[in-house]
Design goal:
The protein is mainly α. The chain is built from 11 helices and 2 strands. Strand 1 and strand 2 form a beta hairpin. Helix 3 packs antiparallel against helix 9. The longest helix has 25 residues.
């Protein structure tokens, strides 16, 4: 029992740090970790994909709130843009959470892995996509501590359509949706990496709060796991935000691609074999 509790705490610390560092929310670590615990520990056999997703989404709230507060102190969160994205991602998260009841375990593993590979591919070919012209109806500006000024923006209709899809994936897979959200902001709207990851955590916090309510109503939350993982998630959220301050935008993207690739291959293997 003690070893299981220690694993829960470790899961929280790793998921919180990784999720905050690259703007993913931590679910990319929490969901597969809970499913693996259900496989190797008989006492955790109740951790089905639906329960793992619901539990993860509650924990994503903690990680995202911790990260958002830290990023806000660094003045890296674009709250206005984040609010616009949440207007669509919130309803999408509710729909995604409801759809989890129709997923079989093998299909969930495979779908989760393929989704991660898709995002990894998008980030890998970011350089080519950046060459395409973009027209914005909303224009934003950000100045970093070194005095560099970045210009970015978005079209509300495109932002809402993309955010709704991301919110639905967030509720469905319990990962917070940050992988696609950061990709959307960087590839479509030219957000600088540090602003994208910080703003992503703010949107994730709001969307996860909404989506987790649907999972709670369906009884898909293991509160014991939440209580054991939460302290590590909070500490990890703060730690990841601090570490990101000394990392370059390129380093953040390398870290994100590696994290996504490892999780993707592991989940696809579980689903197929």
């Amino acid at each position: 029992m003690l070893s299981e509790w220690m694993l829960f705490l470790l899961i929280g610390l790793i998921s919180g740090t990784v999720g905050s560092l690259v703007g993913l929310g931590g679910g990319v670590v929490t969901v597969p970790s809970l499913l693996l615990m259900a496989t190797f520990f008989p006492g955790q056999s109740h951790l089905t994909p639906q329960v793992a997703v619901g539990t993860s989404l509650v924990l994503v709230i903690i990680t995202a709130l911790s990260s958002t507060l830290s990023y806000a102190r660094q003045k890296r969160v674009d709250f206005l843009s984040g609010g616009v994205f949440f207007l669509a991602s919130g309803p999408g998260a509710i729909l995604g959470a409801w759809l989890t009841r129709f997923f079989q375990e093998e299909a969930f593993y495979t779908g989760f892995g393929l989704f991660m590979l898709l995002v990894t591919g998008m980030l890998t070919f970011q350089g080519r996509m950046d060459k395409r012209p973009v027209r914005w109806s909303v224009k934003r500006e950000f100045s970093d501590p070194e005095g560099n000024i970045y210009h970015y923006g978005y079209r509300r209709s495109t932002a809402w359509a993309g955010s709704f899809l991301i919110g639905m994936i967030s509720g469905l897979f319990g990962i917070g949706g940050g992988a696609l959200l950061v990709s959307m902001m960087m590839l479509w709207f030219r957000f600088p990496p540090h602003v994208a990851t910080a703003t992503s955590m703010f949107v994730i916090f709001l969307s996860a709060a909404v989506g987790s309510l649907t999972h709670l109503i369906q009884g898909h939350v293991d509160w014991q796991a939440v209580l054991l993982i939460a302290p590590g998630s909070w500490i990890g959220g703060q730690l990841g935000a601090r570490v990101s301050r000394v990392m370059t935008g390129r380093s953040l993207m390398i870290a994100m691609r590696l994290a996504l690739m490892v999780v993707a291959l592991r989940m696809i293997f579980e689903g197929l074999f």
